[in-house]
Specification:
Structural class: alpha+beta
Number of strands: 10
Distance between the termini: 39 Å
Helix content: 10-25%
Shape: globular
Strand order of the largest sheet: 9-4-3-10
Largest sheet: 4 strands, mixed
Strand content: 25-35%
Order of helices and strands: EEEHEHEEEEHEHE
Length: 179
């Protein structure tokens, strides 16, 4: 489930959104009301239930061989997503939808690399939302490791100290760090 040329995607568990209106996201550090979407490369970051904490890492130009072997592992491909065991049932049963939106209404957000796209005006989807389907199958088809861990924190600490690209979403919902 990725956007086609000229599109960005918004993922939601709500199949009834007729129009996206800019708002200030509760988790955003930005105070400007925006409509959020993602492009082809970042779409897999959202193949999860909305509230599911996830830590993700992928190869970038400066990734060292040691970091690749240590984080991705042998035969690990180029990308890994990690979740906690407590989210397996939600991933199996969530009804997730993708809204296709016109990319020309959005501006890339993020520095140095864009991680999302934002619009400052209301946006109408290009058609009805599409069921995303089996989230495990999406990861498999995309060649993305899906790692299930008791807690995300040791993995997150290793990833953020590595030379890989990384992103963490909804980490506040992860199990607390062990003392």
């Amino acid at each position: 489930m990725r956007p086609e040329p000229g599109q960005v995607l918004h993922f939601s568990e709500d199949p009834g959104i007729a129009r996206f209106v800019p708002h200030v996201a509760a988790t955003s550090t930005r105070t400007e009301p925006l409509v959020w979407a993602v492009d082809h490369d970042r779409a897999p970051d959202y193949w999860f239930p909305r509230q599911c904490p996830r830590a993700m890492a992928w190869l970038i130009a400066g990734t060292t061989g040691d970091d690749r072997d240590r984080i991705l592992g042998p035969g690990g491909g180029t990308r890994v997503h990690a979740i906690e065991y407590g989210w397996l049932e939600a991933i199996r049963t969530v009804h997730l939808y993708a809204y296709r939106l016109p990319a020309d209404r959005f501006t890339p957000i993020g520095d140095p690399e864009p991680h999302a796209h934002a619009a400052r005006e209301p946006v109408t989807p290009l058609g009805p939302p599409e069921p995303v389907g089996d989230l495990f199958a999406l990861h498999d088809e995309a060649g993305i490791q899906l790692r299930v861990l008791p807690t995300l924190w040791p993995f997150w600490d290793a990833v953020t100290a590595s030379s890989l690209g990384f992103s963490g979403i909804r980490l506040r919902n992860a199990r607390p760090r062990a003392d």
